[in-house]
Write a structure and sequence with these properties.
binds zinc ion, metal-binding, H3K9_Histone-Lys_N-MTase, 4-stranded mixed sheet, methyltransferase, SET_dom, S-adenosyl-L-methionine, Beta-clip-like, alpha/beta
């Protein structure tokens, strides 16, 4: 297969393996670069006012976006997270109503995938496929969004139960944002609609982590950033518990889950928690 994303991503996503395996990887699956909600790409209509300072850069003194929400990225245009900024802070990027250029340093996730990544069958059969990088990716760089269908909590629970009963793979994640007054949940299911992030496996010592990023919509993008330098050829991983905020041990407390239903973790990390974490609230 030429491109797993079928031309949707800015860069081609290759498949390493047989044509048969490549077809199995994308069978019954529609590729989108960003999540969809109610049948529409999230943010296809912009819900925010943009910043208006034509000809000037989005310096926080003059920019409505950065001045209000703060800056999470370095201002050098490299798109790297600023390590001095609290990594729990939600990120607001310049949006389609902003007057700044497409190259504005506060547009990173909005510009999409820029690294060459590839899908392949994992050496460990139970893991299915994997996503790996052909490029060296520096720590702090945005890699890709976890895109899928945005669903309500009750629908996420229904699908999760169904997939568990049929022993189907479960890709649903719930991103939680804690504000002072409430917890904001976003449930994402990339089972039938989504992007290459669905091929990313769990690791107890991952090289990617989630940040929530808002561009045109109140619904956040679940954006995966490199938490360490990633050498070319390395598999990309995130901690499923990072999205669910529930570790393997805590999950065993849930009475609905039989011990046998838990899935063994084969990440091979020295600190491996033995079982895949999952969300007890789903
Ligand atoms: Zn601005
Ligand atoms: Zn702006
Ligand atoms: Zn801007």
């Amino acid at each position: 297969m030429e491109d797993i994303s079928q031309g949707a991503e800015r860069v081609r996503i290759s498949f390493s393996g047989t044509a048969e395996d490549a077809h199995a990887a994308v069978e019954g699956f529609t590729y989108v670069c960003s999540s969809i909600a109610d049948g529409q790409i999230v943010g296809s209509e912009c819900a925010y006012d943009g910043c208006d300072h034509t000809g000037l850069s989005c310096d926080d003194v003059v920019c409505g976006c950065v001045g209000v929400h703060g800056a999470a990225y370095k201002r050098d245009g490299t798109g790297m997270l600023d390590p001095s900024v609290d990594d729990h802070m939600p990120i607001f990027e310049c949006n389609s109503n902003c007057s700044c250029e497409a190259s504005c340093w506060n547009r990173v996730v909005g510009r999409g995938l820029r690294w060459k990544v590839f899908v392949a069958k994992h050496a460990i059969r139970s893991k299915g496929f994997m996503l790996a990088s052909l490029d060296f990716i520096p720590k702090g760089a945005f890699v890709l969004e976890y895109a899928g269908e945005i669903i309500r909590a009750d629908e996420a629970e229904r699908r999760w139960e169904y997939q568990r009963k049929l022993k189907l793979p479960n890709y649903i994640i719930c991103i939680r944002e804690h504000t002072t007054s409430r917890i904001f949940r976003t449930n994402i299911d990339p089972s039938v609609v989504g992007n290459a992030a669905r091929f990313i496996n769990h690791s107890c010592e991952p090289n990617l982590a989630f940040r929530t990023v808002r561009i045109n919509s109140m619904i956040p993008s679940a954006a995966l950033f490199a938490t360490q330098d990633i050498p070319a050829g390395q598999e990309l991983t995130f901690d499923y518990g990072d999205a669910c905020l529930i570790s393997g041990e805590d999950a065993s407390l849930d009475s609905r889950i039989e011990k046998d239903d838990r899935i063994r973790c084969d990440c091979g990390a020295p600190s491996c928690r033995q079982f895949l974490p999952y969300d007890v609230t789903l």
